[in-house]
Specification:
heterodimer; A: alpha/beta; Rossmann fold; four-stranded mixed beta sheet; B: alpha/beta; four-stranded parallel beta sheet; three-stranded parallel beta sheet; 17 helices
């Protein structure tokens, strides 16, 4: 079956699945209510979003330079920093640090998803635990995430109870409290026994080398602090010039993700250290002794050079656009590959370089434009989808693309 | 196009392109002005009434799309049916028209264009209509990714309009209006035609004090077509129009109105690539609209009309009608 045909089949099956549309209907209603309340409580967010758009514009046009600066800052903080040009390069670097036979606890990371990081580590004989609750459920089910912030958005509590009963060998009731407690019990021990912790980052400050992670569960705190070795995989587009800029980016991100204030924002700049005995700096106090940061390119530097599609790199991954997409409301993550929705079509085209994969996504966009109204960065994904179609046609015909006058 | 290309670009859109390139309209039909039969519209005038494919072939489109949907739901290869449609069209047989006659969905006299023409005439707004010679805006080519073909089509449309001395256009279809108003200036040099949408023209004139009244009171909600609200920013005119028609109780849809309006599921060629899902989205939108308690849904786009009517049918919404704004206005024209 061609990519397009099998995609269509999957999309249609999703649209026929009432579990997805019912779950999404609830999620959309609560998201809209939360954002509205968050923006009412912190009305400065809208003005701040405009500033962040300018920060992102500046950052993307100096991406290489900023990543270099961030690497230097991290090294000065006694962390190790790398730039991986391809997913294969990133995996090679990670393999070099991890090896095999390790216990790994992982925070949810789209960038990790992009390079199939967990699957890769498991193939190399490591035991890997996703520690975000939704992602953990997804891992146990052996399926793909359906939403970037709420990967198990389509799985009801009854299914979760059944799943956890199977995993623990005891009867877990279909009660959300009990389910959360069960997972806490399972993962608690893993956090402290783990050899390696892994996560992504929402934004990175180039001047201080500080990584920001926004979360609510506390799993990222534990994954990044408890194990002796900590590895971060982050897209190059996440770097901004200063820590002050990074705070702005983070605040706009969480607010448009529907959180008035998130439970945690982690700021990590280097390995754990202490100077408490004779003022001698010693690494690996309570947190990790070693910290590795890998900046992933994988098409991003090419995207940054492309005036038509550059805007896609301004995406903060707040997920707001997905709640406004009428197609996502009935198909969830089936409208996407690793990245979802209209913006996901653009990301797929550039990070995979595979137009056969990107084509069905870009032709799925209704070009209705409501995502752009929601987007704090005002990213015009529908317009980019139309431009991508033009590229695809040009590619298919083997001729040059039509130029705008 | 190479075999590889066939796989990258959806078949439905390739057919659409071929229809525009061979027949100058999206359906590959041989006649586009049948709706205007008996109206004796003049082709002369500095202002052009741009009817657009969507309205001119409304009946056929509605029938074809519902046939395609029926096939898609059963998992049958409807693309081939569309292919057969274009083949039949080449032989001069229009499948859409045949379906239209068979299903007898809406008589020709119901075409919103006839209402629009009547309303404009009563408002003393002069215009010419090119009938069979109306050029295609090429918008669907642009949406499908054929920008090169779109640019060629736009240039030829520009020549036609220039030769015939057109200074202004009244667009009926939102996407044609968008193509002529926003895309043409991006692709062409020296495009100076002033393009307005029907609703803007009507509201300009209504503001000056023309009274409309419905024979009986009715609760009306309005569906914003995406292109009209989010691309052309025409959101106030339709609401002002509705509020000033006597007998209309205007009920705004909750939250999802104006720039937050929900798409009817028929945008950007989606309906010919994913017919079944498009139908689901139409139904979802109609559900939102019916929450207002309205018995009449008004919109101003042929694609939305078809979609919303399908949604109403799906929900078995008794006594609910979907009308084009032009039709509502015609029903509310003052006596005489």
């Amino acid at each position: 079956m061609s990519t397009f045909k099998s995609y269509k089949k999957r999309l249609r099956e999703a649209a026929r699945d009432p579990k997805i549309s019912v779950a999404l209907e609830r999620a959309i209603a609560s998201y809209r209510k939360n954002v509205e309340e968050a923006l009412k409580k912190f009305p400065h967010t809208l003005k701040m979003a405009e500033k962040v758009r300018r920060i992102k514009e500046r950052s993307i046009s100096h991406m290489e330079e900023l990543v270099e600066k961030a690497c230097e800052a991290i090294r000065a903080n006694k962390g190790k920093a790398f730039v991986a040009r391809t997913p294969a390069e990133a995996l090679e670097i990670i393999d070099g640090i991890v090896g095999s036979g390790k216990l790994i606890v992982k925070g949810k990371s789209l960038t990790g998803e992009e390079i199939d990081l967990r699957e890769h580590l498991e193939e190399r004989g490591n035991e890997v635990y996703e520690t975000d609750l939704g992602e953990y459920i997804i891992q146990l089910l052996g399926i793909k995430p359906m939403h970037l912030l709420a990967p198990a958005i389509h799985v009801p509590k009854e299914d979760v109870a059944e799943l956890l009963s199977r995993v623990t060998g005891t009867q877990v009731p279909p009660d959300i409290q009990a389910e959360v407690a069960t997972v806490r019990g399972i993962l608690r021990d893993k956090f402290f026994r783990a050899d390696i912790g892994m996560s992504g980052a929402n934004v990175v400050a180039a001047d201080t080398g500080t990584l920001f992670q926004i979360e609510n569960e506390g799993n990222i705190r534990l994954s990044t602090a408890a194990p002796p070795v900590y590895i971060v995989l982050v897209g190059m587009e996440k770097v901004v010039p200063t820590i002050e800029d990074a705070f702005k980016v983070a605040e706009v991100t969480w607010r448009f993700a529907g959180y008035t204030v998130p439970a945690y924002v982690n700021l990590v700049s280097g390995p754990s250290k202490t100077g408490d005995i004779e003022k001698v700096i010693t690494y690996g106090a309570h947190g990790p002794k070693e910290m590795y940061v890998i900046f992933l390119d994988a098409g991003r530097s090419q995207l940054a050079q492309d005036p038509t599609f550059r805007e896609a790199l301004y995406c903060l991954r707040c997920g707001g656009c997905l709640y406004e997409c009428p197609l996502f409301a009935v198909t969830a993550g089936r409208f996407g590959d690793k990245y979802f929705g209209g913006i996901g079509a653009i990301w797929t085209a550039f990070v995979t370089g595979d137009l056969a994969k990107a084509s069905p996504l870009t032709y799925s966009c209704l070009s209705c434009g409501r995502c752009k109204v929601r987007c704090p960065m005002e990213i015009d994904s529908p317009q980019m989808c139309l431009e991508l179609r033009n590229r695809i046609v040009a590619e298919a015909e083997g001729g040059p693309s039509a130029k705008r006058s | 196009m190479s075999v590889k290309g066939e796989r990258l670009v959806p078949e439905g859109l390739l057919l659409l392109r071929n229809n525009i390139l061979s027949k100058g309209n999206i359906f590959g039909a041989s006649s586009k002005a049948k709706w205007a039969k008996g109206l004796a519209l003049s082709p002369q005038g500095e202002t052009l009434f741009f009817a657009g494919c969507g309205y001119q072939f409304l009946d056929g489109a509605e029938a074809t799309l519902s046939a395609v949907r029926a096939l898609d739901k059963r998992g049958l290869p409807w693309e081939r049916t569309l292919g057969a449609t274009s083949l039949l069209n080449k032989l001069g047989i229009n499948l859409g028209e045949i379906y239209g006659r068979l299903t007898h969905h809406s008589p020709l006299s119901d075409n919103p264009l006839r209402s629009a023409v009547e309303v404009l005439k009563r408002m003393d707004i002069g215009f010419g209509y090119f009938a069979e010679e109306e050029p295609c805006c090429g918008g669907p080519l642009y949406y499908a990714g054929f920008q090169k073909e779109f640019a060629d089509r736009a240039a030829s449309t520009q020549r036609t309009l220039h030769e015939r001395g057109i200074k202004k256009v009244i667009g009926m279809v939102p996407s044609c209006t968008y193509a002529l108003r926003e895309l043409f200036p991006r692709f062409l040099k020296g495009w100076e035609v002033e393009v307005s949408h029907f609703l803007e023209v009507v509201w300009e004139r209504m503001k000056k004090g023309m009274r409309f009244r419905l024979p009986q009171e009715v609760t009306v909600t309005y569906h914003d077509p995406c292109v009209l609200s989010r691309n052309l920013y025409v959101t106030e005119a339709p609401r002002e129009i509705l509020r000033s028609i006597e007998g209309v109780r205007f009920a705004e849809v909750e939250r999802n109105n104006k720039e937050w309006s929900t798409c009817c599921g028929g945008g950007g060629g989606f309906e010919v690539i994913f017919p079944e899902i498009s139908h689901t989205l139409a139904t979802n939108r109609v559900r939102e609209l019916l929450n207002t308690g309205a018995s009449l849904i008004v919109t101003s786009c042929p694609g939305c009309l078809i979609q919303l009517r399908e949604g109403v049918k799906e929900l078995n919404a008794e006594g609910v009608q979907v009308l084009d704004m032009a039709q509502l206005l015609r029903n509310a024209l003052p006596e005489g």
